[in-house]
Amino acid sequence: MSPNAHITSHRKPRRPATQSWAIRSGVAGGVLSTLAVTGAAQATAAEKPAEATIEMPAINAALSASVAESAAATQQTANDYQVRAQVDKAVDHARVAAKKAKQEADRKAEAERKAAEAKEKREAEQARASRDAQRTTLGTKAGASADSDDEGTGAQGSGTSTTTTSTKSTGATGNAATLISFLRAQVGKAYVMGSTGPSSYDCSGLVMAAYQQIGISLPRVSQDQSTAGTQVSLSNLQPGDIVYWGAAGSAYHVGVYIGGGKFIGAQNPSTGIVERDMSYSPPTGAVRVM
Q1: Sequence-ordered strand ranges (E) for the chain
Q2: What domains does the chain contain, in order, with CATH numbers?
Q3: By CB distance 3.0 to 4.6 Å, which of 90, 106, 201, 280 could disulfide with 276?
Q4: pTM of full prediction above 0.85
Q5: Cβ pair 178, 256 in contact under 8 A
């Protein structure tokens, strides 16, 4: 035994058993608390990946919707291009068909124009041949008359015979006969737009020049000539009446009725000045200025 063992002040007091247990319990509680806190932290840390895993489907759904929308837009664009290509193809076909139709129409119109010109040319040649034959006949008659009379009387008789023949075929007398005689002398001359004679005429220029022979002044153009006198019916025409094509006041062509169902006019550059039956190209109206 230690020499100081009997001294009370040098001995450590003994702790009660209850206090020691309490301390151990406190330590154990602290450890358990620490473990609990640690477990809770670990649980919290473990929950975060779970939350991230839960959010992933939402992100994938949005991405899928975006992809689907993009695919739909791409398909729509492709459809639009296809429709546009079909429309363009249809337009091209229509343009080609229209071009072919126009070319065919132009070809037919040109053929008809040439046929009409050829017909007018044949008729003009026939009319010219007929006039030449008439002149030959009149010359023969005049020569026979000159042989039976003296020279002066024969010349006068020839002139009388010619005048009688030209007026008898038309039934015209006086100013009308003078008018028609002038017109027939112009048959076969050229048609020139804007010309008023004496070697060529257009339609209104010929009519104006003819009426000048009997002292009547007419307007220069067809439109005004179609209203220059009194309107008369086509069934009541007299030699010397102006016939026109188109409406009164806006006529596009004029001629002069010479009787016997015929008219004389400057037709076109192909035929020139011709004498024609009214049935060849019936006029739409007529005016009387004498």
Answers
A1: 190-191, 200-201, 230-232, 242-245, 253-259, 262-268, 272-277, 285-288
A2: 172-290 (3.90.1720.10)
A3: 280
A4: no
A5: no
